[in-house]
Amino acid sequence: MQSTRADEVSNNQSSPRATWKEWAGLATLALPTLLIGVDMTVLHLAIPSLTADLQPTSTQLLWIVDIYGFLIAGFLLTMGTLGDRIGRRKLLMIGAFAFALASLFAALSTSAEMLILARALLGIAGATLMPSTLSLIRNMFPDDSQRTFAISIWMMSLIAGQALGPLVGGVLLTYFWWGSAFLIGVPVMGLLLILAPFTLPEYKAPNPGRIDLQSVALSLVTILSSIYAIKYLVREGFGLIAVLSLAVGLIVGWIFIRRQQRLPEPMLDLKLFGNRVFSALIAMHLLTMFMVAGMKFMGAQHLQLVLDLSPIQAGLWMVPIATGGVVGALLASFFVRFIRPAYVISLNLGFAALGYGVLAQVDVSSGLSLLITGLVMATFSVTMITALTTDLIISSAPDDKVGSASGVCETSAEFGIAMGIAVLGSISAVVYRFRLEGSMPEGVSSDAEATATETLAGAVAVSSEMTGMPASALLMTARDAFTDGLVVNAIVGLVTMLVLLVMCLSLLRHIPSTSSKPREPQPAMDD
């Protein structure tokens, strides 16, 4: 049965507090969030063994990692709107079933192309999960302080999944083939399908209108064309393909925006972006996730390919990083009770900048200390920031637009994650290739040189088949080149955090703490 509790309390001065049923439902909603975190880190650890087995090119390897987040980003707006129409719990359950099937397909992939397709299907199914969980939380927890805490728990589940992923994934990759990492999703989604009907209420908009298929198609073309153009520009520079792809993205994006302005029930409510505060929150959400996702992706490879740790050892060293994120998520709801969100966010942006400054000092001989310290600092800060920006974005939406707002919020996050891995990975690849091509040791054959300049994993594989000084010289040069790419990206992260800090203090300082007089969502977002 559709609930109208959120509608009924919106006119009250105080909102009802959640009962044990809502908290049980939150535990159920933590399952898909946990799985997405696990899936993210498991794949990072599986890259070396996956590369050795399927032998993807550097472009295919990036698509294996990227396509999941790209299609999530492409479909999030659609799925958020669809949840408002057919029911948010129903959409969550459909997505869970599809995600389990796609996980099986990914585990059984026998080629790079097949795995890319499987990851694409996982992305489409995954797009149903996050906006459904966020919109349900918004309806289940109308009280401001409880909702902030619930979103912190939701965020903590994502980070806890990233902490659990390396441990479970490390064991699986030590004793089984890389495809076993994808099988984790099957029992988790099965448990969600069992619990959801009993612990989650159903919500949908009372007069949602119909799904506009033209808007769906336009949004997909806009996002995917733009992403492809950016990937190509970063890796290859300006060329006809990049220019055409970017032109298609811009033109179709303009058509999409014009269509949304004319529709009575648009897929994307553009009025939200007319508010500078809302736009600033989306920008912070996207860019902080952009940087931390890209740096953690590189960090996982650095542990295995530069520091020569086994998958399970690398997984164990990823735990402190994820733990920092868990702590950040838990502290977010505490600090915002007494301190204005702008000041909490600004302090964390400054701390994240320090973390990226630490990462900029990493070299081949620095070992684990600088890498782990910098990633812990960045992850702690970014998690607290995104927990707060998520709450502010979701609480600003009217009850009948919560699914759409959740889609916008998660689109920015997933787009940031996907672009962070793609762009920072591409920058790293450019730096790596430039450095290696300019300092290739003597005695390396042309075939070995071609393989080594593709990826660091390729250089490690080639050096293991060589003997003598050329082998050790190639390995050291390749590791130095990869580390230089990490340092360049860390400097980019430091500058980005400082720019966002100035934006935050300029635009968000008027938003009160949750211990202040109860605020209605909309006025809190006004300029």
Offer a concise description of the structure.
The protein is mainly α and 527 residues long.
Task: Give a description of the structure.
With 527 residues, this protein is mainly alpha-helical. Helices cover 78% and strands 0% of the residues. The protein has 19 helices and no strands. The chain has helices spanning 5-9, 20-54, 58-86, 88-107, 112-126, 129-140, 144-175, 185-199, 213-236, 240-262, 276-306, 311-335, 341-359, 369-395, 402-437, 446-454, 456-464, 468-507, 521-525. Mean pLDDT is 78; it is low at 1-13 and 517-527.
**Mean pLDDT score, rounded?**
78
- Portion in helices: over 70%
Q: Can you name the CATH architecture of the largest domain?
A: Up-down Bundle
What is the radius of gyration? 23 Å
Number of helices: 19
Q: What's the helix-strand series? A: HHHHHHHHHHHHHHHHHHH
Domain count: 2
Q: Which percent range describes the beta-strand content? A: under 5%
Structural class of the helices, strands and pairings?
mainly alpha
> Quick one: how many beta strands?
0
Instruction: Give the uncertain stretches in residue-range form.
Output: 1-13, 517-527
From the 3D structure, determine the CATH topology of the largest domain: Growth Hormone, Chain: A
The 3D shape can be described as globular
- Largest sheet entry: none
How far apart are the termini? 37 Å
CATH superfamily of the largest domain: MFS general substrate transporter like domains
The first-level CATH class of the largest domain is given as: Mainly Alpha
